[in-house]
Amino acid sequence: MAALVDCAGAQGLYTYRLPPEFNVAVxxxxxxxxxxxxxxxxxxxxxxxxxxxxxxxxxxPVAAVISQGMFSPTYWQLLxxxxxxxxxxxxxxxxxxxxxxxxxxxxxRVRLLSDQVPPDxxxxxxxxxxxxxxxxxxxxxxxxxxxxxxxxxxGASRGIQALVDRGWAENYLALPTPPRPQRRQAxxxxxxxxxxxxxxxxxxxxxxxxxxxxGGDLWLxxxxxxxxxxxxxxxxLAQKGYLAIEEREVLRQPASPTLAPDQPKSLTAxxxxxxxxxxxxxxxxxxLLHGVTGSGKTEVYLQAxxxxxxxxQSALVLVPEIGLTPQLTDRFQQRFGDLVYVYHSGLSDGERxxxxxxxxxxxxxxxxGTRSAVFSPLPQLGIIxxxxxxxxxxxxxxxMPCYHARTVAQWRAExxxxxxxxxxxxxxxxxxxxxxxxLTSALEGNLPATAIALPVEAKTAPMRHYLVxxxxxxxxxPPPITVVDMRLELQIGNRxxxxxxxxxxxxxxxxxxxxxxxxxxxxxxxxxxxxxxxGHVMMCPHCDxxxxxxxxxxxxxxAVLRCHYCGFSQVQPPTCPACGSKYLKxxxxxxxxxxxxxxxELPELRCxxxxxxxxxxxxxxxxxxxxxxxxxxxxLVGTQMLTKGIDLPQVTVVGIxxxxxxxxxxxxxxxxxxxxVLTQVAGxxxxxxxxxxxxxQTYNPENPVVQAVKAHDIQxxxxxxxxxxxxxxxxxxxxxxxxxxxxxxxxxxxxxAQELAVQLSSRLSEDWSLLGPVPAPILRVARRYRWQVxxxxxxxxxxxxxxxxxxxxPAQVSLTIDVDPLNLM
Length: 825
Hints:
825 residues, six-stranded parallel β-sheet
């Protein structure tokens, strides 16, 4: 048996022998010897063959089975599938899946089952078992660590096993708990005095009456505030036996506002058809919910989840960004209350650990999280929802495993036999192509476009559904998109970043007490700083990229140059470091420059900035959006974080400052990404009672992406994009594997890339071709040089086995294997 050992410094899986009396399944928690210690472990693989480098005499036995069924067998099947497909050691997958702290040091303990022990039991026990029994009976809790009993009793292991065999004691593993569990005092009413009771004062009886009205069980601090009394009064009532005051552990959850309960909303015909299709899906099914922005996809999610919760099942909802979770969490908590849990990397380790412990209980709940939440251990999973399924944030670039949450979610749906819902206003080309038989039937008029099912050709293939929400709720019209040619603006002398149309729209918006969003691709003030005399550009000393200029408020604060790749920063020098000239110019625009331009040109507009610089602190996403929703600003300036499902009904104007930065990226997916981002940000306008308007500024209005966005024409755009990909055999018409080779030594990175390419060229099948090695588009990042080898295969080609390649790299060279990469930069 191979096990993951719960001990600091343990690497990989360790092999143990299973005694015949133990019945162990994958996922069981065990107690095993490890060196001189006895530690916890998780059974990962059951095997009958010994590793080649181990003799049978060297394999130590499992000491005890502590907890069975803690993780379901399908959960470990999922992890093994991730490890195999993404060519990553299983131990790395496990550590990526589990929350920080779950694999901390654990304690094996022994608990006495007092009611099972007969009188004078010690008289007919062997000495070792009698000794253990005596110590357990002397313990106030009837509970000791295995280590303590071993110190006190000779042959403690045999004695413990004898008690366990008789059913008088049980082993268990004290799972790692946070160093300081949060605890609060709670007060509970245990007895109510009568009116004639002379043991209580009138005020004390009032306090007890008030507590009863609130259910008789409150946190002490809440009770003191509600009853307007003192701790002394509460202690007095506890001493008289009317109250019980005790400490309880508080499960840490991110703070959220108190929300009024929400009721299911009436649905449009298209929403109702989509909902009925999802409710009828009781086993594995994959549904693409293609709804235009503002069409009410979230309400469909909510009503599809409700019957699953009522049936004792759980729901997993994945979102691309941490910034999207507050609004979505609020909607779900209004509908489902305390059944909603949040899981993402922005939580503290304690909050993530507590959420995991709750999931393991198996109670019905809704888990909302980002990419890593796809590994949430929900034993009764009823439905999986991927909101904004097209978003590239669902793909992990590094470290390994470089998994895509959409792919892993489909595997989970297969293993748990539940439906998977992929929701988006701009579906990815991969998801779109898989639904093409459904789409073709809809376009030809053979099937209703609101809900179409693909016949299953093979018994193992999932049923696929194409669900369409073609209109916004309440028949709200889509916002018209005005494309502004910035070349013409320059010709008439307008050198502002705001076109005349955008400036006019913002002024009218202000006069009507409405709000707007201004989108720009980059954060910071300017993309780079250059000397106007010698042309020198301020570069990052650790990366082959320019430093971005960040303007500081107040004005007296020194301006900062910052690298957006490695985080390096420095104060902007007063003169050019190359020639000494004081004429330094800032080029390009970012969120800070837009914010500054508003203050200078439209001072009557109040502005908030929403980017990764202003949302670094915990809770900042929620706080900024709440301030904007409460009317503290007229304009919200932000980056792509604004495009991901944020619902702001009061926004009527959306301005896209510079679309060109999205159109010409050195990536075969650039057009698709640009279309998605521009369509999504345009969809933030007009979601309330007032109609919206979008101003799209560009220096290339004839670009096909811009024209498709303006016409809201996703079908023809994706059809064209698919033809271009097919011509080049790029995904989804083909497969890619990217090998990233990095090292602080440029020569070592280049040489290793060349050696790997030579080796691969001789072992790849005819279905695969090799491109490279070549230096990465950005050669150096964070003092590490980067080279790439790209493998390109036919869509049906099996993946080559590359798992031996990392072992062939020198110590100072790292290799990342990225299967199905989204980022080739």
